[in-house]
Every structure is written in structure tokens, then in C-alpha cells.
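Example record

One chain of 226 residues, shown exactly as stored in the release files.
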Amino acid sequence: MFENIKSLAGLIDSTLVRPDATLQDLAVACDDARTCGFAALIVSSGLVKKAQELLAGSPVKVGAVIGFPHGACTTTVKIVEAMEALKNGAQELDIMINVGLLRSGAADRVEIDVKNVITMTSQALHKVILETGCLTATEIAEGSRIALRAGAAFLKTSTGFGFRGATVDDVKTIRAAVGSACRIKASGGIRDLASAQALVEAGADRIGTSAGRAIVEEFRRTETGR
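Predicted C-alpha cells for this chain:
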């Protein structure tokens, strides 16, 4: 379904958000992102400045996770983290929704939380993380509509640190809730080409993975037959 390696790599957000990630890990991730031509490299907010330096001159965007991985911090904390990430060179922000408030039915509070972060960082591209593995289908749909109203450009399935990663059903549920009004980023547990293909076929517009290089190399082998 991917025309070539470039079209596949252009859908990938490579991620390095492990708490034990070293500066050497970052250097490798930046080199992979530049070499493969990924859409973006998503890192912890504290690594944004260094990632921006290492990717200087490359079309690869630098993104930061905000309120990660639980989303339970205050809105002010999320805003400060987001603004600091932008100051250090981030162009995309993956913002963790407050899952506990969503599951409590506090839709207004969830929307205000996300909307305030987005409003204060209007120059960035915003992806709102739902953590679908701990939500019912109804909650996924509600969270998707809340994030869309708040101004999200993308709805992202998972952090990769929750109960599970992205599934085809998650993507289909989000797409049914928002139609074509918002793009979808499937993330969490995507480690091979077949998984990436299935999620894109279900409606995902981007794939978040720490295995981006391996997926691209797997595609290259299918093209060459080796």
C-alpha cells in the first residue's frame, strides 16, 4: 500500500521518550530520522534543544511530549512545559489528555485543559493523546470529540506506556467519532511493517514508533526480495 520507502517514512513519527534514554540514544535517533526521512522525531521535552541541534538543516520536525505519560498534572504545568519546548525548537506537541477526568465524565474540564495548552502554543502542530488502552469505545469517541473541539490537529491513540498500544479498532473508533475533521496518529506497540500497514488501512495518518528504522528496512527488503 506504500508506494515507496519515502512515502512510508513520511508517515512515521520516530519516538524516543524512554526515561532512561541517553544522549547517545538521542544521537542515534536523530541520525535515523535524518537518514530515513521521517516526518518527525518526538522526544521528551528536556531533549528538544539537543534534538533540534542534531537535526539542524534536516526537514525532520522535532516534537515534544507534554504532560507525559499520565496527563494528570495541572494545566499550568502543561502550558509551561509546552512553551519551554517551543522556545527550545519544538514544532509539534503531543499533549497527554487527563484520562482520569475523562473517565470521570468531566468533559468540560478535560476540554479546557487541552484547549488552554493549544491556545498558548498556537504556532505548533498539536496531537492529543487519548491512551485508548484504558478507555471504553464510548470514552474513546468522547475524548476524540473533546480534543477536536479543543483544536487538536491529530488524535493520538497511546503513549506506549499504558495498558496496551494502538489497535485497528481504536483507529476505527476515532475515525467514526470525528470523520475527516481530524487526523489520527496510531502509536504504541507498532514494531513491524504489517502492523503499520493495518493501522494506516484502518485510517491512521501517522505512525508513532520507536522501531521506525526497522520498519523502513523491512519494507526495503520486501521491495528488493532480500
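Notes: The longest strand covers residues 61-66.
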